[in-house]
Amino acid sequence: MIAATQNALSATGITKRFGGLVALADVDLTVGNGEFVALIGPNGAGKSTLLNVLTGLSAPTAGRIALDGRDVTRLPTHRRIRAGLGRTFQHGRLFPRLSVVENIMTGAANRAGRGEAGLRAHALAQLRRMGLERLADQPISALSYGNRRMVELTRVLACEPRVLLLDEPAAGLNLGEVEDLMARLRAIRAEDRIAVVLIEHNMGMVMRLAERVVVLNFGRKIAEGTPAEVQADPAVLAAYLGEGAAHAGR
Amino acid sequence: MADLIQLLTNGLALGSVYALAAIGFVIVYSATGVVNFAAGQFVMLGTFAGVATLVNAGWPLPVGYAGALALMALFGLLFYAVVYLPLGRSPVVTIIIGTVAIGITLQNAALLTFGSWPFRLPSPVEGMMLEVAGAVIPVHAVAVVVATAVLIGLMWLLLNRTALGIAMRAVAQDAKTARLMGLRVNALLAFTWVLAAVLAGIAGLMLGPMWFADVNMGDPIALKAFAATIIGGFGSLPGAIAGGLFVGLAEVLGASYVSSAYKDLIAFGAMILFLLLRPQGVFGERIQDRG
């Protein structure tokens, strides 16, 4: 396929069954170079499962995944990360007994041959860029919730991904922190041309950041388009608000 | 006074060996969640690796030590590949029972290979004595304490000041996230087993000249290292060191001042008290802090 070689990330026909439960049914997801795609859908729609399949934490029942046109479907997680994939979790997963800078060094370790001093310098540079250098030697337990999320974002950026998968990065943040996060995501994209797949329930954030929105429901893709198109889609309204609301909206 | 200095030195030397065995035990436990019941046999194997290279093969000391530790490193790698990796997806209890099986196998393999007659493993400072304040102490005991202190310093540097060590700690805390950082989790786990085996090997080589090299020596060491980790705090490296030294001192002082029949009572009594009153040990962290 020609499209596969042009996209930063291309997943085709992804199906994931857990026993009799179909978590994902023939889902396609393509992300262009530097493109910002939002992945939305009600709880249980399969969004996080899709990220698990993309990163290799969970093997798909069927389907194919390509990064920059290279088939990674059978690669283990750490090799996909080295090939340019980055991912954060819905519930922060910092290493609890490493300091902030050490946490970020683990992300940078993915680029071989830097040595401890090189990794530390790289990690500190990443922290400085995010305005977090004062936290470098803090233990994770001393950080506020908002700072933990920011450190996690810094850590995944230290992996230098070409495609960044963010699982509800704004969950639990206050309004000011959400604005801050959005500004950072915009800056990261403008400077690094990283493609982003964002799972988010905060629709304001989705509408303001995403170029394209993909909607999942019960493991199927039910809509795809610009934020405005998706917002007006009756199938999406039905999924979010129930069948009656969609009719009432007409 | 002279007696006390002598006893303290011997106690610290024995405690150092227990501490090294306990450290090997703790790094495996923190990285994999596996309680390695073969840990004592690892130390026994270290002693007999020394018997094989130094006594049976008659290699000169530096070559013999290097050879014995290389054998232990290979053994750690084999243990990872043949025991841990195939059982990796099983419940942790299955792996623990696997370590019991390997422990029994190792003990009997050593019995078949070396026989039940104990060996004497020489020390590089064999027979040398030091006089301090009227007390005569074996140089070997002092060397053991110094070598252990250096090793502990090196371990600290490895875990805190190298990229490899930071990656090892990350894997120990959350292997799934470590994979998502692009870390080679399997290679790091293999290295953890190798490191544990080499530390046990060093403990075995140091213990050999203090005891007789006997194929049944692994059992008491396992029990002492286990007591040391419970007293110090399960999963804690400073705890393993403090616990090991305590158990060694308690054993030597207890044998001399109480009775050699009751020398183990102090260490195991302390272990039981800790289990009852402070199960997290001296340096133990609250259970919810574990990643």
From TrEMBL, chain A:
GO CC term (a single one): plasma membrane
Keyword presence, ATP-binding: yes
InterPro entries: AAA+_ATPase, ABC_AA/LPS_Transport, ABC_transporter-like_ATP-bd, BCA_ABC_TP_C, P-loop_NTPase
Record-annotated ABC transporter domain positions: 9-243
Keywords carried by this UniProt record: ATP-binding, Nucleotide-binding, Transport
Pfam family, one: ABC_tran
PROSITE patterns: ABC_TRANSPORTER_2 (PS50893)
An example Gene Ontology molecular-function term: ATP hydrolysis activity
Protein name, per record: Sulfate/thiosulfate import ATP-binding protein CysA
Gene (name only): cysA_2
TrEMBL record, chain B:
Domain of life: Bacteria
Gene name as annotated: livH_25
Keyword flag Transport: yes
A single Gene Ontology CC term: plasma membrane
Pfam (any one): BPD_transp_2
Protein family membership: Belongs to the binding-protein-dependent transport system permease family. LivHM subfamily.
Name used for this protein in its record: High-affinity branched-chain amino acid transport system permease protein LivH
Source organism phylogeny: Bacteria, Pseudomonadati, Pseudomonadota, Alphaproteobacteria, Hyphomicrobiales
Single GO term (MF): transmembrane transporter activity
Coiled-coil region: none
Compartments where located: Cell membrane
PANTHER family documented for this protein: ABC TRANSPORTER PERMEASE PROTEIN, BRANCHED-CHAIN AMINO ACID TRANSPORT SYSTEM PERMEASE PROTEIN LIVH
Membrane-spanning intervals of the chain: 12-35, 42-59, 65-85, 92-117, 137-159, 188-213, 225-253, 265-283
GO biological process per UniProt: amino acid transport
Entry membrane topology: Multi-pass membrane protein
CDD domains associated with the record: TM_PBP1_LivH_like
Keywords: Amino-acid transport, Cell membrane, Membrane, Transmembrane, Transmembrane helix, Transport
